[in-house]
């Protein structure tokens, strides 16, 4: 009989600041970009994911100043 791998479940909550972030003449960072970002990094520690999303949004906007609030809560349950 094969071994079962533990099931990993995430809860990702955030304010709208990252989704609505945008450079002066471009589209919003958006929900899909946020989901793709999270999906590509789900193996990382949640503390690292929260730092990386902030950096990703800043890089997208082209500034470390984001006009709106950005807060996220990421919970990972294993097992």
Oligomer: single chain
Largest sheet: number of strands, sense, barrel closure:
2 strands, antiparallel
Principal-axis shape:
elongated
Main structural class: alpha+beta
The share of residues in extended strands comes to 15-25%
Low-confidence parts: none
Number of helices, where a helix is a run of at least 4 consecutive DSSP H or I residues: 3
Task: Give an account of the 3D structure.
The structure is a single chain. With 79 residues, the protein is an alpha+beta fold. It is 38% helix and 18% strand. It has a two-stranded antiparallel ribbon. The longest helix has 16 residues. The chain is elongated, with a radius of gyration of 15 Å.
Topology:
Layout: E1 8-14, H1 17-20, H2 31-40, H3 46-61, E2 72-78
Antiparallel strand pairs: 1-2
Summarize this entry quickly.
With 79 residues, the protein is of the alpha+beta class.
List its traits:
two-stranded antiparallel sheet; 38% helix; 3 helices; alpha+beta; 79 residues; elongated
């Amino acid at each position: 009989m094969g071994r079962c791998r533990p099931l990993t479940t995430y809860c990702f909550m955030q304010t709208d600041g990252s989704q609505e972030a945008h450079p002066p003449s471009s589209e919003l960072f958006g929900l899909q970009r946020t989901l793709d970002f999270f999906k590509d990094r789900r193996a990382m520690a949640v503390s690292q994911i929260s730092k990386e999303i902030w950096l990703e949004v800043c890089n997208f906007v082209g500034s470390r100043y984001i006009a709106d609030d950005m807060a996220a809560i990421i919970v990972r349950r294993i097992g």
